[in-house]
Amino acid sequence: MEPTLFSKIIDREIPADIVYEDDEVLAFNDIDPKAPTHILIIPKKAIATLNDIEEGDLALIGRLQYTAAKLAKELGFAEEGYRVVMNCNEAGGQSVYHIHMHLLGGRRMQWPPG
User: Fold this and answer.
1) Which of 1, 20, 35, 111 has the smallest CB count inside 10 Å?
2) Catalytic residue positions, numbered
3) What CATH number should be reported for the domain holding residue 95?
4) Are 104 and 37 in contact (CB under 8 A)?
């Protein structure tokens, strides 16, 4: 996989407003937020799309979900509610080919998304 915007953020080649980091996961504020809180949660392992997840990645994908819930609690909107979104490929809205989760909170979410 060629370097992506996210791999450059992981490698600190591009700055980001990092809100959480551990050995496997990095989370940072989205530069084009769609909600009062809009955090991108990414694995440090390069995986291009949801279609590329392998069985050995299951714990890592669970860690992304766990991180989203943890951040929602820490930021005070877990009980009120929040949205977690992962897009896959161009028609699914994916623009960076390094899987990532959007954590959106701080306002009532619409359905369908708008």
Assistant:
1) 111
2) 100
3) 3.30.428.10
4) yes
